[in-house]
Amino acid sequence: MLKVHSHAHVLIPKSLSGFCPIYNNRVKNLGILLSGRGSNFEAIADNVAAGKIPAQISVVISNRADAGGIESAKRRGLNALVIPSKGVPREEHDRRVVKALQDHGVDLICLAGYMRLLSPWFVQQFPRRILNIHPSLLPAFPGLEASKQAFDYGVKVSGCTVHFVDEHLDHGDIIVQKVVPVLDNDDDHTLAARILEQEHIAYSEAVRIVLSDSFKVVGRRVVATAQ
Ligand code: GAR
Questions:
Q1: Does residue 16 contact residue 167 with C-beta atoms inside 8 Å?
Q2: FRET label pair with 141: which of 162, 169, 192, 224, CA 20 to 30 Å apart?
Q3: How far apart are CA 192 and CA 135, in angstroms?
Q4: Active-site entry in 93, 134, 163, 200
Q5: What is the rounded CA–CA span in Å between residue 126 and residue 120?
Q6: Cis (ω within 30 of 0) for the bond into 142?
Q7: Rounded to whole angstroms, how far apart are CA atoms 180 and 157?
Q8: Considering the entire predicted model, what is its pTM?
Q9: Is the pLDDT of residue 89 over 90?
């Protein structure tokens, strides 16, 4: 039997309700956490504005007042908050950030150059609802300056990874990866710049997959389910 969801007096097949937000009673809310320049945030915001991500950005939060991304969020007319982390105990800071995310009804959190490790408690508040982007093909080169680590190691390909956040650094289940070749005339900056271009594509792809609910996790493998 066809399962239906009721919305505005229209019967919507359950198979449609996952990937089209208006069929889900309300538009899904994204929360963005960043610490710096915010180019990944901007790529997501551009795709939201262009209707290519079926969601809205309900809040952008930085732990640093000088983050370029927070200025960009304000220019775009988004709710932009600075919740300083400097000198604040980790649990206290995490509590403030979680409260702000909950106050803004956030469904999915995107870490976009957020240079803080989330506490296990934070992660548990949003199970499989926090994404991170990392500029290497994980599990290679976790941690800081990943593209420089890869370049210095001498790898011939690198790239970027969007993954669910779990309690461990750069470790959760992988949603999207993009491969970037390392060219003989690269330096770590040119490589990082080409990886960043792919990050901007990969992050929106991953957000769409997660919002669509059209995946399952088998072991560590995130695989598509039939629509
Ligand atoms: C991006 O390259 C992102 O992958 C990286 O920080 C940069 C932020 O740039 N994140 C990490 O290294 C997390 N481990 P952006 O502020 O322009 O988006």
A1: no
A2: 224
A3: 8
A4: 134
A5: 10
A6: no
A7: 6
A8: 0.89
A9: yes
- Ligand 1 contact via 112 beta carbon (within 6 Å): yes
Burial readout 17-37 (b: 16 or more C-beta within 10 A, e: otherwise): bebebebbeeebbbbbbbbbe
Element (H, E) at 200: helix 188-212
Residue labelled with tokens 């239906």: 4
Angle in degrees, CA 138, 139, 140, rounded to 5: 80
Looking at residue 168, what DSSP letter applies?
Answer: S
Q: Is the CB of 116 under 6 A from ligand 1?
A: no
Give the ranges where 128-187 is alpha helix by DSSP (H). Answer: 146-153
Q: Is the CB of 134 under 6 A from ligand 1?
A: yes
- What gap in Å lies between CA 20 and CA 116, rounded to an integer? 32
Q: How confident is the model at residue 136 (pLDDT cuts 50, 70, 90)?
A: very high
DSSP characters over 68-88: HHHHHHHHTT--EEE---TTS
Element at 224 (helix H, strand E): strand 221-224
Other beta carbons within 10 Å of 80: 20
Domains and CATH numbers, the chain: 9-224 (3.40.50.170)
pLDDT value at position 25? 63
Per-residue model confidence as pLDDT tens digits over 178-211: 999 999 999 999 999 999 999 999 999 999 999 9
Ligand-binding annotation for 116, yes or no, is yes
